[in-house]
Amino acid sequence: MSILAKVSDERVANVQCTDDSLIVDLMDGRTISVPLAWYPRLHSATPEQRDNWEIAGGGYGIHWPDIDEDLSTEGLLRGAPAPRAG
């Protein structure tokens, strides 16, 4: 019986925003693509603001300083949209 080891590196390698999608490349070669509409701050930001991102949280997060938005690879992999304002 063989045991398969989980080999993954969920740290951020690159981030790209289109008019409709947030696309995050991970260090292990996977790409996550989610609707930009899930993240209202990113959706309403200018392309320049979306392009100004930095890796945060030891590589497991993304921060957009111009709009004070933070996302984690864990949340993106779970398919978790931004919480709705209540």
Automatic annotation (TrEMBL):
<protein>
    <submittedName>
        <fullName>DUF2442 domain-containing protein</fullName>
    </submittedName>
</protein>
<dbReference type="Pfam" id="PF10387">
    <property type="entry name" value="DUF2442"/>
</dbReference>
<dbReference type="InterPro" id="IPR018841">
    <property type="entry name" value="DUF2442"/>
</dbReference>
